[in-house]
Automatic annotation (TrEMBL):
Gene3D superfamilies: NADP-dependent oxidoreductase domain (3.20.20.100). PROSITE patterns: ALDOKETO_REDUCTASE_1, ALDOKETO_REDUCTASE_2, ALDOKETO_REDUCTASE_3. Residues 19-294 form the NADP-dependent oxidoreductase domain. This is NADP-dependent oxidoreductase domain-containing protein. Belongs to the aldo/keto reductase family. It comes from Artemia franciscana (Brine shrimp). The active site is at 52 (proton donor). Substrate binds at residue 114. It comes from the Eukaryota.
Amino acid sequence: MAPNVPAVKLSNGYEMPIIGLGTWKSKPGEVEEAVKNAIEVGYRHIDCAMVYENEKEVGAAIKAKIDDGTVKREDLFVVSKLWNTFHQVDLVIPTCKKTIEDLGVGYLDLYLIHWPMAYKPGPAWNNRDENGKTIFDLNTDYLQVWHELEKAVDQGLVRSIGVSNFNSQQLDRLINNGRIKPVNNQVECHPYLNQKKLIAFCKERGICVTAYSPLGSPDRPWAKPDDPKLMEDPKLVELAKKHGKSPAQVLLRYQVQRGVIAIPKSVHKERLAQNINIFDFNLSDEDMKLVDSFDCNGRVCHLN
């Protein structure tokens, strides 16, 4: 029996399920099965991005589950993101259309600017100079990108628009200069980087927050053997034992109780089911304070 996942009401009236499936790092060949399994066990929110290079497979999985009657398109909340090499004004709408075509979904429920900075367009996701340094496009401003996203709403390509990896100053600039207010800011967020200040800032302005890497991204490709492993933190393991839950379930419950949307990634059916089954227990105020105390500004995802 799939759990009934609560939704967060966005400032424009749409509803976004508080738990979604992350697809970053899901390899070609396994992501299609993962998305099918996720939909079967109750996920209705799928988080994608063109730069993950797997949107066609995600789309094939969505189509399969619509075709077999498991879900209708309107049951799903599909998110994607505009990558840094497509910030130039003439590239934004065509790139959005390409994502919609690859996913085969007709429209996006939410489209985000992936990062606030623009890269020089080119064949690679990250075009570099002869010294291996990223070539930024300093003539393109994320405010111009935002105005193009507003046009995507007007054209019915996307229902809601937001950002990812934006700080409070960048958000304020968008709010003060845009026609449509961002509904969502997706940022790295877990107990080692709990983002309390940014979450409070967003909430005051009616912007909900999505936590990516809510489990600390243990499978990140650049992890060093001696890096702290959030899910093995003895205090977290002890807390999980107390509740008869896994460390991952406690981490996700922590976000949900803060009103933060979480998008854990997994390709294993049993873990997918476990990650969404977090609505039958509560963390006490003391438990929440304990998890909050892990914060050490421990960012694990850096743009390079």
